[in-house]
Each structure stands twice: as structure tokens, then as C-alpha cells.
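step 3/5: co-fold with adenosine-5'-triphosphate
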Amino acid sequence: MADSGLPSRPKPEETPAAAPAEGGEQSKSASKNAAKKAAKEKAKAEKAAQRAAQEKAQAASQDANDTAKDLYGPLPESMDVLPTTHFSQLSDAHYEKEITVVARVDNARVQSAKLAFLMLRQQGQKVQAVIAAAEPISRQMVKYTGGLSVNSVIQVTGIVKKPEIPIASATLSHLELHIRKVYMISEASEKLPMQVKDAERPPPATTEDASQADVEGAPLVSLKVRLDNRPIDLQTETNQAITWISSGVTELFAEYMLKSGSRWIFTPKLVGAATEGGSNVFEVKYFKKNAYLAQSPQLYKQMCIAGDMGSVFEIAPVFRAEDSNTHRHLTEFAGLDFEKTFDHHYHEVLEFAENLLVFILSQLKERYKEQIAIVQKSYPKAGEFKLPKDGKALRLNYMDGVALLKEAGVDVSEQERFENDFSTAMEKQLGQIIREKYDTDFFVLDKFPMAVRPFYTKSCPQDSRFSNSYDFFMRGEEIMSGAQRIHDIKELEASMLAKGVNPNQEGFEDYLAAFRQGCPPHAGGGLGLNRIVMFFLGLPDIRLASLFPRDPIRLRP
Ligand code: ATP
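step 4/5: write C-alpha cells
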């Protein structure tokens, strides 16, 4: 019915009830008003339709006259796949050549009806692009390009030119792309919760400072906002560099280990018992039972040694249910672990580990120079990481550290009685003292008191108050704990009892059986990837060195 253009007849249930007889005059004037209103609305709708048709016709004619209509807009599906060039490959050799790049819009600006600028961003690096209306580039194309929404992913084809003056705001300041084609690949249509350029500056010292602005009035984005919007935050030049350095640490760790003949292992993260202390372990449902998330691969690394694997290493998550809201604690972190047999003395393994760290830290400086320089622009306070000049790690005994602190006037009575390990403040102060005295940010303390180490640690044969255990420090904070492990079953059971750990507790049977069945002497260590990155770069918070940090209050994104 409606298709005939006639108003459809109301259905019986829609028929208005007959007006009451006494309201006759009133109802006549009401229906007159309604008719007037309807006529007005009709005229209005007709005008709007006319206008729309005019605009459409205008757009169509503009389109028909747009000399650039195939050179911009949504990426045509039928288009040939063009080989793209990465910003990192660009050099003077590209001058006057046509290239195609896929990048984000860091900024878009219309200068005039005939001129617009884009700042393109690719993994933190920036290149300026310019578009000028000149056949076949039309004014419409210039307008489209200058109006592209920030952070959209686009494909740009253009000629690489040498700018008259270097472009200070671009990373690749000695070249400029003169746009020939620009297509949208993925539009950033939503309003961004923060701007990448604002996240380029370090966050304020405390999360409460969310609304702070810097001296020039530019907004300072709090750490919370950054972490809540991590995919955008990761786009900053600084985070691109930090994540490369983090990747570099694992690359170098694996490289050193594999070159030394060590095997890469993967141990379970779901375990049946909380064998390393029950309080800081996450419990999870495991069908009809409970399971736990592994707090370290310690017992498994040792069982691999008992399995005659000689030297093993692992890169895997470590879970700690510690309610520690500090700058250096996460509830899940990336652990770099190793375990290794030795022939005569645990110092063979200690030296191996010292050389590992010297290798990682010195190679980072060599292979990731550019990234380190980028991070230092944002976090200059800590200064460059100092390595020992002779390429050999500085090794002191724990008690030497206690003596250095005592000399500096620190109360170390608890440490002298072997009751407590160093506090974080003491570690930091010791780091300062050692930096001043030995000119290094990396050092090792050996021979910790037995009282502050776990049950599987071998005590020192010459003095049972101490143990064959060591910690590694960067800028005065712990990045590795390690030790010679007890491989003799009787000694192991006695050590467990002395530490109040019941050897008959569920979960120890397989571990202890490995030693009952014979196991060679061995030592090893556990490092925290996020801490290495944090202290190497002098970052103020471990969350800045973790992709998607987990802490007692953060479980997203
Ligand atoms: P801390 O005393 O600093 O809490 P820890 O003695 O508990 O550390 P270990 O259990 O010996 O540390 O773990 C070995 C390494 O793992 C540490 O040196 C550190 O690099 C890293 N690590 C330990 N706990 C955490 C954590 N909660 N968050 C991030 N990294 C950690």
C-alpha cells in the first residue's frame, strides 16, 4: 500500500475514536492547525531533499573534475601491491626516487588551499611529507590529506627530496616526501585518550599528578593513563627504544647461553604444590584440585641437572603473589634463569654468570646505541650505565659490603648478626659508595649469610655462618640471586629441617628423589629481565620496563 504513494488507510485498531459531540468547534480548529503543520513540514522536507540533490550533483561534478580522484581516499582493493620502504632503510641514496611507505599520521596540517603537511610516524621515527596542488594533485586531495585524523595508518607514495633546511621536528630531518598518492589503510576514528606526542615526555613522578602540565603548559600524561592505554603508549619513540632494549637483553642472554653449550628449556608454570613458601604463591583451580603458578623454575632447573643436561637456561614468566607496591616489584615478571654443573668450585659458575652480565651490558651499549640515546633524552637523570673499565665484574664479599656501609655511618648491626639481608635503602647506598669508589654500576656480592638464603643453598664449607651464594647488583639494586645448590640428599634434608621446611611435604618427592638417585654438583641463578632493563636505562619504575605490567592493583590491559 505504502508503495502506491498514497497515505495508507489506518488499520481498524488505529482508527481514532469519534470526537465527543460537545467539543465540535474545538476539534475543527485543532484539525486546521494540524493540516498547517503538516504542510509546513512537507515544504521543509522538499527543500532539504532539493539541497541534498544539489550537493550530490555538485560533488559528482567536482569528482568528475577531480584530476586526482584515483590518487587518494580509501585504499583501493584492486590496487597492485606496491613494495614498501621502511623508514630505517631510508638514506641520501633515495633522493629524487619514488617510494611507498606505510606509516601513521603523527600530525596533519593544512597550510593553505593548495598546501598541506603530514608528519608520518613509523615505530617512533618521523618523516615529514608535503602535498601541493599542481596537476594532477587537486585542491580536494590537498584538503583530504591535511584533514587526515591523527594516528590513522596510511599508505603514501611520493618522491624523496632534500629539504632546503633540515626538518628539526622529524627524526629523519634530511629528507622530505613529496606526496603523489595517499590512501587510508586504517582510520583512527575514535578520539584518542592521550596523544603520543604528550606521552613522549616522561610521566610525572606520582600518579596523582594526572592533570599536571609541564613548564611550557603541555599536558603530562600520568603513568596510570599511559598503562591503561598501552597500545598508544607503546608507539612513542621512547617506548619503541625500551622494548627493543628489552628484546636485546633476552637475545644476548640466549646468545651467550647457547654459545656456551647450554640448552634452552621450558619448565612447567602450573605446579602441584607450593614448594618455595606458601604465602607468596598464586593458587589456581585445576579441575577438581588446586594448582599453583610457579614462583621460579628452581626445582625443575635442578632436576634437569639431575637429568644430565649439564647446562640449562630458561626465559619464562615468574609469578609472585607479593603485595609489594614498590618501584621494582611486579606480580608477574620475565625471568632469565640458568643452572650449570661445575668441576671443582662454584666460582666456575659465578665467573660464568659475571661474564654473562658483562657480555649482555657491554653488547647492549654496542648494538643498541641509538635506542639508549633515545631513552636518555627522556630519562637523563641516572646517567649512562657504568661498566667496569677492565671488562671484569667487581666481586666483593657480603661482609665487605657491610663494612663499606658501616664506614659510611649506616647502622648495620642486624647484618653483622646475620639476621637480615640489606634493605632496599642500604642496597642503594652501597651502590652509591661502590660507584664512587670503584667507578662501576655493576657489582657482585658473594658469600651471603646462610640465614638469609633458601634451603637448597650450599653453606660455606669454611664457615657455616655463610653460604656459597651471590647476588648481582645494577645501580645498587638486586637483579640476580644465585648460589651453589646442595646436591647431597642427606645435606639437603638436613638443610630443609634446619629451615623449617618438611622434606615429606607434598611436592618434594620428585625433587628429593632426583638427589637420592645421584646428581652432580651445580650452581645457577635467576635474573629479572624487567629489572635489568630498568636499571640499565635508569628508569624510575619497573612498569616502564614491562609491556603489560602486573602488580597488586593492575590486571589490565
Ligand atoms: P627482592 O629481594 O628484590 O624482592 P628476591 O630476593 O625475592 O628479590 P629472587 O627470588 O632471588 O628475588 O629472584 C631473582 C631475581 O628475580 C631478582 O634478583 C630480580 O631480578 C627478579 N625479581 C624477583 N622478584 C621480583 C618481582 N617481584 N618483580 C620483578 N622482578 C623480580
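step 5/5: annotate
The chain is about 35% helix and 20% strand.
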